[in-house]
Design a protein that fits this description.
It contains 8 helices and 4 strands. By secondary structure, the chain is mainly alpha-helical. Residues 1-11, 19-28 have a biased composition (Polar residues).
Amino acid sequence: GSNVLRMSSGIQIKPKTAVQKSKTSSPLPCSPEPAVKPQPKPSDKLNPKTIDPFVAHSRPPSAFAAIYAKGGIPCRLVHGSVQHRLQWECLPETVPFDPLLVTLAEGLRETKHPYTFVSKEGFKELLMVEDATEKAIPLLPRLVPVLKAALAHSDDEVFGRGLDALVQLSAVVGPSLNDHLKHLLTNLSRRLMDKKFREKITVALQKLEQYGGKVS
């Protein structure tokens, strides 16, 4: 058959012969403005972005879930056969820590997939960029209350994520966290009574002491 469709009006319309190149696996630099996805990705079908209509009236979406649904978190969960990973829409080094690092910390209190994974892994990976120390230290007054809320949460998994995030933050900011530790130790001491967390909390306290120096 002919590759040219002839319409009654005599206008010839050639079918598309080239497929638009897909995005490369390498993320692009972020602009100062928050990244917003113009088009959905195939993987987004696996990410719940809507609230169950049966509970929408009684349980409004959390702040983190709302931001995630609007594309305000510049990374997405990629399902792997062995383990999941994050795919950043732009280089993490170019992402503004304010407010993203605080937003990811707030997401640690989530209890639903994929928010639990995105917040935990995103917080960790953002702190791994080269200049994370200078970017994170000014945010400590806002990060500490958020981490405290995670450590005070009744859900064991939320507490665990909060504890991991605290140690990760301490490794990055070092002694700068010392003045804020008094706001967090109460929640840690309460969980020390729980046998399943005793060893993990003890190790975390040792790391906080190591990263914080003699003053801690």
